[in-house]
Amino acid sequence: MRLRKFGTILFFLLPSAILLGALVIYPIVYTAIRSLFSAAGGEFVGWDNYVTMFTNDSTFTAIRNNIIWVVVAPITCTVLGLMFAVLLERITWSTAFKLIVFMPMAISMLAAGVIFRSMFDENPNIGVVNAAIVGVQNAFSADDAAYPGASPRQDAGLASEGGIISGEQATDAGSEQAVPLVGIRSDDLPADAVQAEAPAAPGADEITGTVWLDVVRGGGGVNGEIDESEVGLPGIRVDAVADDGSIAGSAETDGAGRYAIAGLSPGAYTVALPASNFDEGAQGVSWLSASLINVVVIMSYIWIWAGFAMVMIASGLSAMDRSLQEAARVDGATEWQVFTRITAPLLSPVLMVVFVTLIINVLKIFDLVYVIPPGASKPAANVIAVEMWTVSFGGGNDAGLGSALAILLLVLVLPTMIINARRFRKERER
């Protein structure tokens, strides 16, 4: 009888044991042995790969980033999932809300990485985040003209230094100073720019002139003179700078590029166009730079996995005994007290399962870290899984060091897996 029972158990467990040994145990054992050999595998090097691993700056960066991931991502996802799950019971359109929050789980990590890399691109014409930031900056900033790349026409009596374009010689009050510029792209011209025109005759206390783009499309024209189809540059500030460096007067060019600085005392002044006329204007944030890349990658992970936490916690919330909450409300407890002293403690087993699951997941994170950072920011966003792949297959061709990194990753993940398994066993025994 016992032999038959043992045979039945062996019959059902043997296929699973074979698969477990072939797919889990054998790779772990082989990787541990392989980590003790050289890159090509022909020479036994002992612990040299582990010494190399822990003396490599990129490994320390990867471990530091993994610690940041473990501290930030699981906690944030769990807290957001709890908030969303509780909110689902308060809103009438809970099904639509749940669909919106959970939808990113249906997107592959690779696709999510591409989405976030495009969203946070520094160019406002590509990245929607920087487009919004630039839009807000433009809405609340002064409506100044900006002509990036502008430079003075050669042999026009103008000089450029520190971004300031000015006349090489001082100009007397009652005179004119023409300012022909080049190097401005046509798409940087404002909509109100029209054909450049010569200025009005100056008064005794005025300096007048025209600031224009001294370029004829298709070629031709006379350098330093206003030709037909050459466009004036509106909105440019023009200063009259006295000998002591003070600004004696200022004016702004009109649609035809004309300006007139009035109220000047007799004397000579340097006509100058401040550098603020030629800056790039409102620009976005370098989200994908080395200093902010980890923030973007972790945000993409939270965007994906907050829906998973919400669904798990919502299922635990739906199975909760609501009589305890109602009794607390009858006794005069506020909603916050009900949540902190009744709901959250009763949900603690579910919250712990979600939290531990996310820890295991972030320790193995690879896709997002590999896809989102551009080349210059990849070292700053490095994690252990990416470092292992890079060393083994991404150009390093060092299977020994890669195996050592794989064992390090296993050692980091194993304690969390053991804690999770023990928790499942205790819940099963209840």
Explain how this protein is built.
This protein is of the alpha+beta class. It has three domains: 1-33, no CATH class; 59-127 and 287-383, MetI-like fold (Orthogonal Bundle); 151-278, no CATH class. The chain contains twelve helices and eleven strands. Strands 2, 3, 4, 8, 9 and 11 form a six-stranded antiparallel β-sheet that branches. A hairpin with a 2-residue loop joins strand 2 (158-161) and strand 3. Helix 2 (48-54) packs across helix 12 (399-429) and helix 7 crosses helix 9 (335-363). The chain is elongated and about 120 Å long. The model has no long low-confidence stretch (mean pLDDT 85). Keywords: Cell membrane, Membrane, Secreted, Signal, Transmembrane, Transmembrane helix, Transport.
What is the average per-residue confidence, as pLDDT, rounded to a whole number? 85
Identify the overall geometry.
Answer: elongated
CATH architecture field of the largest domain: Orthogonal Bundle
| Percent range of helical residues | 40-55%
- The unreliable regions are none
Q: Could you give the distance between the termini? A: 31 Å
* CATH fold topology of the largest domain: MetI-like fold
User: What is the number of helical segments per DSSP (H or I, 4+ residues)?
Assistant: 12
The assigned structural class equals alpha+beta
The overall number of domains is 3
- β-strand amount: 5-15%
| Main beta-sheet strand count, sense and barrel state | 6 strands, antiparallel
Q: Radius of gyration from the CA trace?
A: 34 Å
The CATH homology group name of the largest domain:
MetI-like
**What is the number of strand segments?**
11
Domain ABC transmembrane type-1: 63-420
Protein name: ABC transporter permease
Keywords: Cell membrane, Membrane, Secreted, Signal, Transmembrane, Transmembrane helix, Transport
InterPro entries: MetI-like (IPR000515), MetI-like_sf (IPR035906), Sdr_B (IPR033764), UgpAE/MalFG_permease (IPR050809)
